[in-house]
Write a structure and sequence with these properties.
One of its GO terms (molecular function) is transferase activity. Keywords: Transferase. By secondary structure, the chain is of the alpha/beta class. The protein has a domain of 249 residues: Amidase signature (AS) domain (Amidase signature (AS) enzymes, Alpha-Beta Complex). 38% of the residues lie in helices and 15% in strands. Strand 7, helix 8 and strand 8 form a beta-alpha-beta unit. Helix 9 crosses helix 11. The two termini are 16 Å apart.
């Protein structure tokens, strides 16, 4: 096994035991980037020289007994919405030409302090306003979409071009590309990970979180990211200091909700079968399955768009009026549509969200976790715009991909996407686990137990 193939936890163990140096690991990942990047398009920019310098510093620290923790010397990619001092934050947009960040974002500063090594900035759908990341190819089939908007981050991790990465999630943008590329994606509780220094799409829906190869890896990254930051008005305090799940796979006593509505409506049969098999496997690990009714489902789409569109337009108000021609057509149309939305619609969306949060709080008293598909279909062809379901219903690809992930953004509850197999075309399928606010330890425990009792996953054969 080559160093770039290692999980974060395995690489950290090897570095701690001095069986592998950070230089070996970073060189291996950079060699992998050079090989696969022409096929994947995961990165906006690769900072190879800086990464090698940081790896040498990490190697020196480890040799001197100054190990900062499990992320020390580990190569990472950061979605190009996340500020790094002195570097461009392009948001994969011509609007940001010539931009340079004045300071590190909170998450970048925390990862750097933990010793993580930046490989580069990863592509996003322009300003995170889309679910496909068109400039990036799926790691399993380069003719298919990567998913978005954190497509570059998910593809880099799936292809061995980063050991872990960060993404952002406003309607599913961590979990969707993670599911479509066969990696783990965690959207934490709203406010748990600070967003200071991260370009916003929709302030009341935005989250930052890790994309990794395993659930344990996600827990290791989350542990570094979490802490209150007063510069983010939504930042919350939390007493958990270590999110790594305990060893063992016994889940006896946990109640897992299985939706009887919404989450399995208009879902590809292969996706449904894989997720239901995974849920059955959880039952074999001791959980008690409970059928649940998802509340207020008829309002989910309208609430998601009713919040996101006007907030995004408000953020882009100045540049939309001065340089509209620099936006990609799909994003410009959405931003311009936001200028036409009445204030009353936005207020109704806010009221709807309040009702949903209350209803979900009641639901999550009945169960500890809800298990459902992450997305209703695997990665579509890059030129495909519409999904047609067996009953003849046609649905836009972006609408389909956001449909099952949006409730966690609206309500702010945490959601973890875990790979649960492949369809007959060899494309990955993801299951999402949703929990109570600040319930990440339970989600990570369930996801880790499932993962530990499955065959080891392989990297995409790019």
């Amino acid at each position: 096994m080559q160093p770039y193939e290692l999980t974060l936890a395995a690489a950290a163990d090897a570095i701690r035991a001095r069986k592998m140096s950070p230089v070996e690991l970073v060189d291996s990942v950079l060699d992998r980037v050079e090989k696969v990047e022409p096929h994947l398009g995961a990165y906006v920019t690769v900072t190879a020289e800086e990464a090698r310098r940081a790896a040498r510093e990490a190697e020196h620290d480890v040799a001197a007994g100054r190990l900062h923790g499990p992320l020390h010397g580990i190569p990472m990619g950061l979605k190009d919405l996340i500020d790094i001092a002195g570097a461009a934050t392009t948001a994969s947009s011509r609007v940001r030409a010539g931009h340079r960040a004045e300071a590190d974002s909170t998450v970048a500063a925390r990862l750097t302090a933990a010793g993580a090594v930046l490989v580069g900035k990863t592509h996003t759908h322009e300003f995170a306003y889309g679910l496909t990341t068109p400039q990036t190819n799926n790691a399993w089939d380069r003719n298919r979409v990567a998913g978005g908007s954190s497509g570059g981050s998910a593809v880099a991790v799936a292809g061995g071009a980063a050991t872990f990465a960060l993404g952002t999630d406003t309607g599913g943008s961590i979990r969707v590309p993670s599911a479509l590329n066969g990696v783990v994606g965690l959207k934490p509780t709203y406010g748990l990970v600070p967003r200071h220094g991260v370009t916003s799409l929709s302030w009341s829906l935005d989250h930052v979180g890790p994309i990794t190869r395993t659930v344990e890896d996600a827990a290791l990254v989350l542990t570094v990211l979490v802490d209150h930051d007063p510069r983010d008005p939504a930042s919350v305090a939390n007493s958990v200091t270590d999110y790594r799940p305990a060893a063992g796979t016994d889940l006896t006593g946990l109640r897992v909700g299985v939706p009887r509505n919404y989450y399995f409506d208009h879902v590809d049969p292969e996706v449904e079968a894989a997720v239901r098999r995974a849920i059955g496997h959880l039952e074999g690990l001791g959980v008690r399955l409970v059928e649940v009714e998802i509340p207020l489902t008829r309002y989910i789409q309208a609430t998601q768009w009713g919040l996101m569109v006007p907030e995004a337009t408000a953020y882009h108000e100045r540049s939309l009026r001065t340089v509209p021609e620099l936006y990609q057509t799909d994003v410009r149309i959405l931003l311009e549509a936001g200028e036409l939305m009445p204030a009353g619609d936005y207020l109704r969306a806010q009221r709807s969200r309040t009702l949903m949060r209350q209803a979900w709080a009641r639901l999550l008293k009945e169960v500890d976790v809800i298990a459902a598909p992450t997305v209703p279909a695997t990665a579509v062809k890059a030129d495909q715009d519409i999904l047609t379901w067996p009953d003849g219903t046609a649905e836009g690809v972006s609408d389909a991909y956001v449909r099952l992930s949006a409730p966690a953004n609206i309500t702010g509850v945490p959601s973890l996407s875990v790979p649960v197999g492949h369809d007959t075309a060899g494309l990955p399928i993801g299951m999402q686990l949703l929990g109570r606010p600040l319930g990440e330890p339970v989600l990570l425990r369930v996801g880790h137990a499932y993962e530990q009792t499955q065959p080891a996953r392989r990297l995409a054969a790019v």
